[in-house]
Design goal:
Blueprint lengths: L1 H12 L14 H37 L5 H36 L7 E8 L2 E7 L5 E6 L1 E5 L4 E7 L4 E4 L7 E3 L5 E5 L5 E7 L11 E7 L1 H12 L8 H12 L2 H4 L23 E2 L4 E2 L2 H9 L1 H4 L12 H13 L2
Parallel strand pairs: 1-5, 4-10
Antiparallel strand pairs: 1-2, 2-3, 5-8, 6-7, 6-9, 9-10, 11-12
Length: 328
């Protein structure tokens, strides 16, 4: 029996780890939220223990003295008054703790970097700008930030209400059409942190993930400099042919690849799509095979998304996937 139950137990334990956990906090805001959660849990445990002890005491006292006298009644009234006062104090204490945690989440200090986050069904657009708010470049579904720096995110929604949530770095905040919300991130440790839309936004809500990649300053500066460059000119014959396919098909009317005539704004900027870790908002790892599968039939893989099926021959599909992979 033990041998049979062991695999089931191991399967259950595998659910205890997750790339999205509020208890694995590596950002200032997330740490403040974790501390609040731990504090509330400890208070709840203390209250539960106090209630259990009182119930045990009352039960034993009742066994010894079945009939209540006037002294017992006075003791009970004092206890009820004390419990009421303690409840008011606990509620006030939790309210104050929540208030100061909320203030920590809504830091309004100076930011080292400001990034515009635009959510739409069902992907994320990240727009990087200079100090004068002139756009430098944009990427999709992958947000790079420097470790130990305060990053201000300007949250916008292009269609319906979405919600930006990276549990290991900050609490969630809604993105509302026609309104700009501000969220502050500060990662204290390098790493890759998974984020997710946390507000139901339509058919593919569950497939609207993104990655926050926190890097050392030098590594971040190298990445940023590379992102400002135009798309790499293809060198292999297959990729060169793929660029021609891209520019002659409807792809170029929806997507931008800097350094080419393609300047569409409906879909994600593909200037460096080959360097991203995932495609389709976290649906697949970025490989030539997944790129080809997505191009061939995006509606089967992610029904309802805004990318149409573009008729391509087998040769054109191979060439186009080679070109996409080369854009690093």
């Amino acid at each position: 029996m033990k041998n049979r139950s062991l695999p089931a137990l191991l399967l259950l334990l595998s659910g205890c780890s997750s790339p999205q956990s509020v208890l694995e906090a590596y950002g200032q805001a997330a740490i403040a939220l974790k501390d609040l959660i731990v504090f509330i849990v400890l208070v709840a445990i203390i209250i539960w223990l106090a209630v259990v002890v009182f119930m045990a005491f009352a039960f034993l006292r009742r066994q010894r003295q079945p009939v209540l006298d006037s002294r017992s009644e006075r003791t009970m009234m004092v206890f009820l008054a004390t419990a009421t006062a303690a409840t008011a104090i606990v509620v006030a204490l939790l309210t104050v703790a929540s208030f100061y945690t909320t203030r920590a989440l809504n830091s309004s200090g100076a930011a080292d970097l400001t990034i515009t986050v635009r959510a739409q069904q069902w992907w994320w657009q990240f727009i990087y700008a200079d100090q004068d708010q002139r756009q430098l470049f944009q990427t999709a579904n992958e947000l790079h930030i420097p470790v130990g720096r305060t990053v201000r995110l300007r949250l916008e929604a292009a269609d319906v209400i979405h919600s930006f949530w990276v549990p290991s770095l900050a609490g969630k905040l809604d993105l509302i059409p026609g309104r700009e919300n501000i969220l502050t991130l500060r990662a204290e440790k390098p790493g890759v942190y998974r984020g997710q839309c946390a507000e139901f936004c339509g058919l593919q809500h569950s497939h609207m993930a993104f990655l926050v990649i926190a890097e050392d300053d030098d590594e971040y500066q190298r990445w940023s400099a590379a992102q400002r460059l135009d798309g790499a000119a293809p060198s292999r014959a297959e990729a060169i042919a793929g660029q021609a396919v891209f520019l002659t098909k409807p792809c170029a009317t929806c997507h931008t690849i800097r350094g080419t005539p393609a300047s569409g704004s409906i879909g994600p900027d593909l200037t460096h799509v080959g360097s991203r870790r995932t495609i389709a908002a976290g649906l697949f790892d970025t490989t030539r095979g997944s790129l080809a599968a997505w191009i061939a039939d995006p509606q089967t893989l992610k029904p309802g998304n805004n990318m149409p099926v573009v008729p391509l021959s087998a040769d054109e599909l191979r060439q186009l996937s080679a070109y996409m992979e080369s854009l690093r």
